[in-house]
Design brief:
The structure is a single chain. By secondary structure, the protein is of the alpha+beta class. It folds into two domains: 85 residues, Beta-clip-like; 231 residues, no CATH class. It is built from 14 helices and 13 strands. The strands form four sheets. It has a five-stranded mixed beta sheet, with no helix packed on it. Strands 4-12-11 form a three-stranded antiparallel beta sheet, with no helix packed on it. A three-stranded antiparallel beta sheet has the order 5-9-8. Helix 8 packs across helix 11. The longest helix is centred in the middle third of the chain and has 20 residues. The chain is globular and about 65 Å long. The two termini are 31 Å apart. The chain binds zinc ion (2 copies).
């Protein structure tokens, strides 16, 4: 039996319901024809472009032009002129070193659209601070010792108890100690971070910024709060993540500006990263086959995170710029479950599909196609 969850109404065409076999799923509310658009999401909670592609993807429309570097960056003077009210412009320092906050755009109008978002200056300042910090550590980074450390950490066993005591140590020991230091000393206490942690800092900062300006009663907020956290399964699989997440938290705790710092609690931080695993959508290069397209990054779209996977899905998802649409690829009847393909694996054989889904999404696929194929093979 499924029970309707009235809190999570994301589309007039389907219900999000709790299932008896675990988690929520989406069910058609009425008979609908192939080709029906059942959900379009224009606003994600957060997106993260891989470090490797940071200069090659437009941070507004997510355009990727076969590895060409995007032409347009942010300019400090223009930001001050465009974003601050007249009276405040003179009070703002215009430092010579502004590196564009690690944001690249395909054209002037994408940059203009990006900076026209309400309060975006708070996020741009945060990105710029994180970038300056990341660059300041460049000389200390040593890839060989990092790899060695990764191997060592990945051999450790991480139980829920160890994860819990790590965070309670941060809360009870590290935070009080850092709070007592002068501002100038805090940054020197920060751990060395590598690309993955730097990207993660930016991702969490962007999520906090968006949460700050999201209506607590909105569908976006409700669906985000209800996302399932896969923190434990993921850290169990990649023990190094606990160390990495701790460094990200510490970096943000010291470097977040006053506008975002109050939002950074350990529990929200853990929910953001725990629910990212298994719920994020990949941002893939457009117009290429599944085998040859580039993985450019990922984004969190909580409104669209309640579709289950099926190896013969009845819903197609498609990214058009920075929008995500979901369309029926066959007729469905009222009450039928609506499923998508999680990772472009439909052409693989059943064992390979099952392996990929269990490794990355932590479940054993029991879809009709898998059941049928497993019966035939055994
Ligand atoms: Zn663009
Ligand atoms: Zn399946």
């Amino acid at each position: 039996m499924e029970t309707a969850n009235t809190d999570l109404i994301v589309s007039p065409l389907f219900d999000v319901k709790q299932t008896t076999y675990g988690g929520r799923a989406c069910f058609a509310r009425e008979d609908s024809k192939e080709g029906t658009n059942i959900l379009s999401v224009n606003r994600c909670l957060s997106s993260s472009i891989s470090h490797e592609f940071r200069k090659e993807v437009c941070h507004n429309c997510l355009k990727y032009n076969n590895g060409k570097i995007m032409k347009v960056k942010l300019d400090r003077n223009q930001l001050v002129d465009d974003l601050l009210p007249d009276g405040k412009k003179e009070q703002v320092s215009r430092p010579k070193t502004f590196n564009g906050a690690g944001l690249w755009f395909c054209c002037d109008s994408c940059r203009d659209e990006y900076i026209s978002q309400d309060n975006i200056i708070e996020l741009i300042e945060t990105f710029e601070t994180l970038l300056a910090h990341f660059q300041s550590q460049a000389k200390r980074r040593n890839t060989a010792s990092r790899i060695e450390e990764e191997h060592k950490l990945n051999e450790t066993f991480m139980s829920p108890k160890i994860i819990g005591s790590n965070w309670s140590m941060i809360e009870k020991d590290w935070i009080p100690r850092i709070d007592q230091l002068k501002a100038s000393k805090k940054a020197r206490m920060l751990p060395l971070i590598y690309e993955e942690e730097y990207q993660c800092c930016r991702f969490v900062a962007q999520t906090l910024f968006n949460l700050k300006y999201t209506d607590p009663n909105s569908v976006l907020m409700k669906t985000f709060e209800a996302l399932q956290s896969n923190e434990q399964s993921r850290i169990h699989k990649f023990p190094i993540l606990l160390d990495s997440q701790t460094k990200v938290f510490q970096t943000l705790y010291v470097l977040l500006p006053f506008s975002l710092k109050p939002l950074l609690t350990i529990s929200l931080f853990r929910h953001i990263l725990g629910s990212e695993y298994g719920n994020a959508f990949g941002i893939w290069q457009d117009g290429e086959s599944n085998d040859s397209r580039e993985y450019l990054g990922f984004w969190i779209v909580p409104q669209a995170s309640y579709f289950n996977h099926s190896c013969s899905p009845n819903v197609d998802k498609k990214r058009i710029g920075n929008k995500l649409t979901f369309t029926l690829n066959s007729n469905v009847v009222a009450g039928q479950q609506l499923c998508i393909d999680y990772s472009g694996i439909l052409s693989l054989d059943v064992h390979k599909r099952q392996e990929i889904l269990s490794e990355n999404w932590f479940f054993q696929c029991g879809c009709e196609k898998c059941q049928l194929e497993l019966q035939t093979i055994h």
